[in-house]
Design brief:
By secondary structure, the protein is an alpha/beta fold. It folds into 2 domains: 45-176, 3-Layer(aba) Sandwich (Rossmann fold), CATH 3.40.50; 186-379 and 416-452, Dihydrodipicolinate Reductase, domain 2, CATH 3.30.360. It has 16 helices and 14 strands. It has helices at 3-26, 64-73, 89-101, 115-122, 134-146, 161-174, 188-198, 217-220, 232-235, 247-256, 277-286, 350-354, 363-373, 376-388, 394-407, 416-434, and strands at residues 55-60, 79-86, 108-111, 127-130, 150-154, 178-181, 205-213, 265-272, 302-309, 314-320, 328-335, 338-341, 346-349, 440-441. The strands form 2 sheets. It has an 8-stranded mixed sheet with strand order 13-12-11-7-10-9-8-14. Strands 3-2-1-4-5-6 form a 6-stranded parallel sheet, sandwiched between helices. Helix 5 packs parallel to helix 6, helix 7 (188-198) packs parallel to helix 10 and helix 14 crosses helix 15 (394-407). The longest helix is centred in the N-terminal third of the chain and has 24 residues, at 3-26. The radius of gyration is 23 Å and the shape is globular. The chain starts with a helix and ends in an 18-residue tail after the last strand. The structure holds nicotinamide-adenine-dinucleotide. Nicotinamide-adenine-dinucleotide (NAD) is lined by residues 60-66, 85-88, 91, 113, 116, 131-134, 136, 154-156, 183, 232, 391.
């Protein structure tokens, strides 16, 4: 390499660093939409990292969710599980030995509350898959993107807006992926809905709805471990309220409505009942004098949040997980030309109404709709997804997709701006609930770049 070339690279790097410094200086954690637009290379819009033939993955948190991720990931093409990081050595060892027994490479263990730091600095992995409890997602994801490692974050994303900003800034600076593990975006019906919306079937969309209502078995019956102790996920509900778990409801709607791709979440209002379900359950099960019955939970039992978008659309989100009812999760979108609801898939189009038949598509018509807009992933490989599993196969497709994109040097289906915007609902819905449902501005994590970002194509 000649010295001129060397100087050129040095100058280019300097200019890039200078541009970066200007962008970051303009983006304080509270600077919602006043910040300067994100420029050129600083933005991660359409970002694709260099191709990796083999992706070395570390799973952080190997409890219920992380434990199943470990085994699922071993079957994802191009992925090798090289490390497990846990507080509890026995849990990690259990999965380590299971992998070994099944003929996979024995992953290295990183044990302890701050072992994720050592893991991120060790160079053993290209990507971390974060499956710890809600509280620590922000702290761990922040650290891993600061180390320049591709980072996948379990729902509900990160709890604090300053963590979300820090993750956006670090991912932009270090040019790494950071994606919410929003498995519900890979639900078969949800993918059909998203693809049909992108194909323009409903015309201009006006409204979206998502709900995640179900009886979280492990939060109620297992949530109270005994008369003295509560399960870790319940800890998160003691001092917080609002919509704490919005991603299953919001993720698919957000993609269908091109949020962060021509539109953005702009402000919200949130309302929830004065939660009492957890306390009543503890009293009923353990008696009023038990230690767990003295715990006050601030969380709403039922929360409803309405989001307004920059393009004047609305999104209604509902969440409840302590009222006995079967698992109910659906997403629906409403447009100028029709309506699509999921789980079960129901489609209504204006031309049918014009023809005097104002019903949802049925039989052969619905089958034809599915065939046309359903995802090729489900069409081609449903059997593999169902066999490897995870919520009927959607978890497999979620991991399959990011791995496929990274192996082929493609942008991911969801990005750090989605993680940040969806996560913001957490803190802002809580603020709204605590302030008589006052409207809360949602930060513009893309600093204007959403205006020129093109919608995604079908997957
Ligand atoms: N997408 C989905 O469908 C879905 C389903 C269930 C749970 N989740 C999410 O997955 C996450 C984990 O939930 P879970 O039910 O498996 O909880 P869990 O308590 O069973 O597991 C969490 C694990 O993380 C470990 N951990 C905590 N802090 C750690 C740290 N600093 N370093 C390393 N390990 C740490 C804990 O020891 C525990 O084993 C939660 O955020 C939850 O919201 C998502």
């Amino acid at each position: 390499m000649g010295s001129g070339e060397c100087q050129d690279i040095g100058r280019r790097a300097f200019l890039e660093r200078a541009a970066w410094a200007v962008t970051v200086a303009a983006v304080g954690s509270g600077a919602a939409s006043k910040a300067a637009p994100v420029q050129g290379k600083a933005s991660l819009v359409g970002f694709a990292a260099s191709k990796l033939e083999k992706i070395r993955v570390a799973v952080i948190g190997t409890g219920g969710r992380g434990g199943s991720a470990v085994h699922r990931l071993c079957h994802v093409p191009g992925v090798e599980v090289v490390a497990l990081c846990e507080l509890d050595e026995n849990k990690a060892k259990h999965h380590q030995q299971a992998l070994k027994k099944n003929g996979f490479r024995e992953p290295q263990l990183f044990i302890g509350p701050e072992a994720y730091k050592k893991l991120c600095e060790s160079g053993v992995c290209d990507l971390v898959h974060i499956n710890t409890n809600w509280e620590s997602h922000g702290m761990i994801a922040r650290y891993s993107v600061e180390c320049g490692i591709h980072t996948m974050v379990e729902v509900p994303g990160v709890r604090r807006i300053d963590d979300a900003w820090a993750i956006v800034e670090a991912a932009e600076k270090n040019r790494c992926h950071c994606m919410p593990l929003s498995n519900c975006c890979y639900d078969e019906d949800a993918m059909t809905m998203i693809n049909a919306a992108h194909a323009g079937i409903l015309g201009e969309l006006v409204h979206g709805e998502g709900c995640y209502l179900h009886f979280t078995r492990n939060l109620r019956s297992q949530g109270f471990q005994d008369a003295n102790r509560i399960f870790s996920s319940l800890e998160a509900l003691r001092n917080h309220t609002g919509m704490c778990y919005c991603v299953h409801a919001l993720g698919p709607i957000s993609l269908a409505m091109n949020i962060n791709r021509g539109d953005r979440l702009e402000h919200l209002v949130s309302m929830g009942n004065k939660g009492f379900g957890w306390e009543m359950y503890a009293q009923k099960k353990f008696g009023p004098k038990a230690r767990v019955s003295q715990i006050r939970f601030e969380a709403n039992d039922f929360n409803t949040t309405c989001v307004y978008t920059a393009q004047g659309k609305t999104i209604l989100l509902r969440q409840c997980n302590d009222v006995p009812m079967p698992y109910t999760r659906f997403n629906s979108i409403y447009g100028f030309n029709g309506t699509i609801e999921t789980r079960p898939l129901r489609v209504a189009v204006e031309k049918k109404f014009d023809a005097g038949a104002g019903n949802f598509l049925e039989g052969a018509e619905l089958d034809a709709f599915r065939a046309k807009y359903g995802s090729p992933l489900w069409r081609k490989d449903a059997a593999t997804a169902k066999r490897i599993g995870g919520h009927g196969g959607q978890d497999y497709f979620m991991d399959f997709r990011w791995a496929h994109c990274i192996r082929n040097g493609l942008p991911l289906d969801m990005n750090v701006y989605d993680l940040a915007a969806w996560s913001a609902i957490f803190e802002l819905s809580e603020k709204s609930v605590r302030n008589r449902s006052q409207a809360q501005d949602i930060p513009d994590f893309m600093r204007g770049a959403w205006k020129t970002t093109k919608p995604d194509t079908a997957i």
